[in-house]
Amino acid sequence: MPRKSGMKFMMEFVQGYLDGERSRLDWDLDFNHYLIQNYPKMEKENSELADCFYFYLVEQGFDQGEDLSDAQHKKLIKKQFAEFESAMNDGMF
Questions:
Q1: Is the dihedral angle over the CA atoms 33, 63, 28, 89 positive or is it negative?
Q2: Long-range contacts of the stretch 21-29 (C-beta < 8 A, 24+)
Q3: What is the pLDDT of residues 51-74, one digit of tens each?
């Protein structure tokens, strides 16, 4: 069975949270763990795309969500994920 790319795994993880497949608690506990585990693979696959993911989902998403309600947090992550996907789909990478 082929291994899933690091980027694909992280994008599915984020989408799962946005789709309600995991709770805010699961997100808060697991996001950094999975990012640490997958980021080296992400960098090997495409370092600029990995940096873009980090900017939108970590710096502008995860790091900003500490004092937000669950609904506000999900709205922030949804916005940041859309920004990331927009940059990715606009051919920046």
A1: negative
A2: 24/70, 24/73, 24/74, 27/73, 27/77
A3: 999 999 999 999 999 899 999 999
